[in-house]
Amino acid sequence: MTRITTLRLTLSFASIFIGATFYYVLLRTTTGANELVPFTDVVDEAWLPKDVHVDIQDDLESTAIPPTLSPALPTLVPDIPRRKKHKVPKKKPIIHYLSPVPKLSIISIWNPSPDNKEPIYLPNFFASVAANPSIDLLFIKYDRHRVGTPSCETSHVKNMRQVCLSFEEYWKLHADFLCKRWGGCSTTQRQQLVSKLHERAPGDRVNSYFRPFRAAVFAKWINPETPIWGWCDMDTILGSFERNFPWDIASEFDFLFPGPPIDGDDILLFFPGHMAFFKNKEHVVNAFMDFPNLKTYESYMDLPWVSADTEECEYSHFALAKTKLTFLRFPGIVHSRIHFSSIASGVFATENPGHWLAVSAVNIPSTSSSSYSSELDPLRSSLATFFTEHASNWVSHPTFSEEGKEYDVELREGKWEGWLWFPKQYAVHYTADRTKGRQEDFSKRYTMRRPSGKLYDRTEPYRDSILEIPSTAYTPLGSEPVRSGASLLVFDMLYNHFQAEKYAEWWSLPKDPIAADELLFVDRENGAQMWDPTGKIIFEVASESKPTDTISP
């Protein structure tokens, strides 16, 4: 009896509760079907994963009744604010490269020295990069000497980026690249590869072993749409890329490299270690990966490795003589003992340094004791002004014109009779036929391989890339003028490379970069001077004396 009574009471209370609930819901739904409880703008952080940013407005759901529902039907609405659904955003890849796409990216590698001293040429190199906003510099700092992973300082050069790598990180990137190209490496192979890379690293004195692959090895820092990349050493001062790089035809070639402004009849072809350029395309990388010592894991591990100057030696020979890659050699490097460098105006090579020494009053004696004379200030100032005016008045011309003359030539391997710094078997050259080119005293020479596979020699007029210096810039007032036809000439070039002189005990450069209105005058055998806009010498170093930061009259 008691159990029956209890069951009846329970059912009664349940009926009352259900009825009350139904009445409450009916009351809520008849007061307005769209009067939903608003979402709060406060995010319940307990529902969120760590480090997730939520935009409240993006996550709000519409309060309108779905059109498929009839407004006459009651809509059950919870009596508490509904918890919002929070979407976890997908992890976006980190972008390490520039946007918009640069016209050209240069990759330079620098190794901090054990004595922690920066080379004296770095400030001018960076300043000359800044003066060429159309290019992008990726500056790799790699701990080759294992003195500690270098730090990346804040750069004041807008078109320069730094990447700082330990010894292990640097070679890991190379192992990643090689294993990917070989179709993968087993765990054991990868360990052995890294060990071999470390073992061979001390012989890579100037970071030459993998130069043609820099854009592929450091790909995550290079915009994939960049059309051209290049390597460049830092013991250089860049001239004007706008005036001296063959922008209008560069896309037609797989690789490009500079040569001197004038040549003899026999022309040696090779990638200069201090500068060369490559089309940023997969087929170029694939072609270089056919290099016998790199083609497979086994060949890299088992075959004898390359020389320390491999970019000028083995890689040059392979690309020029063993592949079908198209190429262009163009005038670009300062070749002369006597030259001028201006951050704002560019770099200029004297056509005939012997003639300059004989004719010009502006020279650097081997000792600085008597070099400064205020009487020559106007001449030095006139020279600087001359270069500035040239940069301001320059007019663009097509690289190849209707006036150019072109003929096919024969490539020769291992037959070079001149001096070489690498084994003769890797020498690649051809002999020019001057009767088939332009007959002017000075013509721009281009060497190229076109898609047909044929090699061509082409000569073009120099136009305003060769400059005649006015006698007022090197002949003092009252002196006899230079005879007609014997004036001094200079070439407007892409870059200057400090060569053997930088190893001399007497050699030095100012600790601060060349200012926009200053001019660096270099005689590789005798010394260097820095001039201010008035022509005053503000820095001087001579081969038989110590450098002087300021010369007083």
* Helix content range: 10-25%
Rounded radius of gyration (Å)? 35 Å
Write down the overall geometry. Answer: globular
Summed up, the domain count is 1
**Global structural class:** alpha+beta
The chain-level mean pLDDT equals: 84
Euclidean distance between termini CA atoms: 129 Å
Strand proportion, as a percent range, falls in: 15-25%
Instruction: Count the E strands.
Output: 22
The poorly predicted ranges are 22-78, 549-553
Major sheet attributes? 10 strands, mixed
Discrete helix count: 13
Side by side, the strands of the main sheet go 3-2-1-4-8-6-9-15-16-12
Transmembrane segments: 7-26
InterPro entries: DUF6625
Keywords: Membrane, Transmembrane, Transmembrane helix
Keywords:
553 residues; alpha+beta; 10-stranded mixed sheet; 7-stranded antiparallel sheet; disordered C terminus; DUF6625; transmembrane helix; membrane; transmembrane
Protein described:
The protein is α+β, with helices and mostly antiparallel strands. 23% of the residues lie in helices and 20% in strands. The protein has one domain. The protein is globular, with a radius of gyration of 35 Å. The chain crosses the membrane at residues 7-26.
At a glance:
This protein has 553 residues and is of the alpha+beta class.
Layout of secondary structure:
Layout: H1 2-30, H2 56-59, E1 104-110, H3 122-130, E2 135-142, E3 160-165, H4 167-181, H5 187-200, H6 214-217, E4 228-232, E5 236-238, H7 241-244, H8 247-250, E6 255-259, E7 266-269, E8 275-279, H9 282-288, H10 297-302, H11 314-321, E9 327-331, E10 338-342, E11 346-350, H12 353-359, H13 377-393, E12 405-409, E13 412-413, E14 428-431, E15 443-449, E16 455-461, E17 466-468, E18 489-493, E19 495-497, E20 519-523, E21 527-531, E22 537-542
Parallel strand pairs: 1-2, 1-4, 2-3, 6-9
Antiparallel strand pairs: 4-8, 5-19, 6-8, 7-14, 9-15, 10-11, 10-20, 11-18, 12-16, 13-14, 15-16, 17-18, 20-21, 21-22
Helix pairs in contact: 4-5
